[in-house]
Amino acid sequence: MKNSLRSIGIDDGYFPIEYKGMRKKTLIASVLCINSDVENLVLELVTVDGLDGTESAVRAVRRVGVADIVFQDGVTIAGFNVIDPEELSAVTGIPVAVIFKHDLNLEKIYRALKKHFSDWRERYGVISRTYSKSVKVPTPWRDIRISTVNIEVSKALNYIIKLQTVSPLPEPLRLADIVASGLTKNTVLLKIINGET
Questions:
Q1: Is residue 197 part of a domain?
Q2: How many domains does one find in the chain?
């Protein structure tokens, strides 16, 4: 259909706190929707506190299908791993909108990263660059903060509003969160993934 909107949501799953610093894996889910209906779903592994977030996201987006826009839930996943929306858009050729559910305290993030990671500059650079470009925009549900890559804020906002069917999050992103969290929380799947069984 000519007016069909194809969009992808990416979000990460749960991991136990003891996974931090152990190179353990959790899942990211990539959900492709046509309008608000699920068309495809892809799962990828991502390292807790690693630096493979962008690479995992690129694989997930390429595997799930062609879309008009990709939605990210913030920039950090799997602890302090990051998905760089600029790189994700450049490699896949798809515009990206990052949705921040909460305002960030960049100074607090800076201190935490500098304390715990030797590669803190790379991680903080992605977070601060993306968040500093973000703007707060009104939606029928509530104001949300978004940062966009290769798409006008107004166009991304129109897509988001069209896809806010049951929550302030666009439907593909809401579903990606449900899938990734549901598969990893209170199940043995993480132990299987990490060879703990």
A1: no
A2: 1
